[in-house]
Amino acid sequence: MKSRLIIGFGIFFVLMVGMLGCTVATLPSRSISNNIPSKYSFNRDSSITETIVWKKYFVDTNLIKLIDEALINNQELNIMLREIEISRNEIMARRGEYQPFGFLAGSLGGDKSGHYTWNGVSEEDAKTRADKLPRYIGDQMLQATFSWELDPWKKLHNAKDAAVKRYMAANEGRNFLMTNLIAEIASSYYELMVLDNQLAIVQQNITTQKDALEMVKVQKDAARVNQLAVNRFMAQLLNTENLKFEIQQQITENENRINFLTARYPQEIKRNSSNLNTAQFLKISTGIPAQLLANRPDIRQAEQELEAAKLDVSVARANFYPNITLRAGIGLQAFNPIFLVNPKSIAFNFLGDLVQPLINKNAVKANYHNANERQIQAIHKYEQVVLNAYLEVMNQLIGNKNYTESFATKSKQVEISSNSIEISNSLFISARADYTEVLFTQREALEAKMELLETRKKLLNTEVNIYKALGGGWR
């Protein structure tokens, strides 16, 4: 009984020593996810937002076909799918660590000891004995071995659970990538439509400016203006033609950007740019900010990574406790192969290992402290993602409201500027206006039309980004 108490006290002492010096960093006491506002301050809509389905949110059939193709062929998305499979395999590996291992081993070998060694003397003695022992060849063995590391501290199980959490985080990462991919294709598609309309406006302006140039040449022939007026109209025409080439280059690059995202070589992107001003989206309720925690895949990813970091701390803590491993083996062993089939050649063993780090545990301590620091990093990352998600929704919804009002104002400006072109031309012909007024009026009208399309593009982008900010239709 006394010896048992001594052994028990020794084990308890080892465990206590193992935990000495295990001070850890203090975890943040607050969580931004607990302080998220109950509603958006600028928006009275507190209804529950419905699940977004991207095929219903975007109604343009050409855009839907592009997104469908990208979700199948996009290389980055397919690379992510391989990462998910790697995470799945990691779960399999971790699960196998806390299950018994079995091996089948065999060996065949011979050895000859020197004459003036104890083994050599024994062999010579065996040869001279009357019973004539069988001839010694070596050591032949065929054995099955088993080992099983017990997991009383849940180290191996927690490592497996952490791998599961990272697998789930990888899935959420794929969902987030899908959301970004869909949004990027949609933004590029609508930008392409805007560029087409800008090109049409520039072409129209080139025609108008050519007419104005001819009008000025007639005025010069009639000695009503000088060559300076002709040169300025010509310079404006050349500047507008240069703008046309820039837009054509942007169209090419935008088409190839979409082709890259859909994993295909350069080809024309099918679209109907005349529908730019009538482009529509499914109207959805913004819901309440707390729903972002469930809908945003980047938040869900950060949450799973945080859970995995917590489990890593438990795994690192368990390294201070003893490792307990059971080992067993059974097989056949003989000094001559002909005796392997003899029942007397059966050999077996069974033992248990208990290993406890006692001296120079710096590596174990460092691993434990690092696991705690990574957990704190994961907490801050989670808070950062939640805050960013809320601000993104705020920015896009407010932007949608402002750009809608801006588009209405710009539309009125374009209407006035277009009328001013006709007025300035009439006044110039009747010598009641200077040619510079015609130039300025044409320039202002072109700028107003281009700015109107830029505002339309920003408005479309807010619609796309609202889809993305509210969680995206990755389901």
List keywords for this structure.
475 residues, alpha+beta, Outer membrane efflux proteins (OEP), 2 domains
CATH class assignment of the largest domain: Mainly Alpha
* Major sheet: 4 strands, antiparallel
Average pLDDT for all residues? 85
Sheet/helix structural class: alpha+beta
How many structural domains does the protein architecture include? 2
Tell me the distance between the termini. 64 Å
CATH architecture descriptor name of the largest domain = Up-down Bundle
Tell me the helix content: 55-70%
Residue stretches low in confidence (pLDDT < 50, at least 5 long) are: 16-21
Q: What is the tally of beta strands?
A: 4
Q: Count of DSSP helices?
A: 11
**CATH homologous superfamily name of the largest domain?**
Outer membrane efflux proteins (OEP)
Characterize the quaternary organization of these chains: single chain
Beta-strand percentage range: 5-15%
CATH topology (level 3) name of the largest domain: Outer membrane efflux proteins (OEP)
Q: What is the alpha-carbon Rg in Å?
A: 39 Å
Instruction: Give the strand order of the largest sheet, numbering strands 1, 2, ... along the chain.
Output: 1-2-3-4
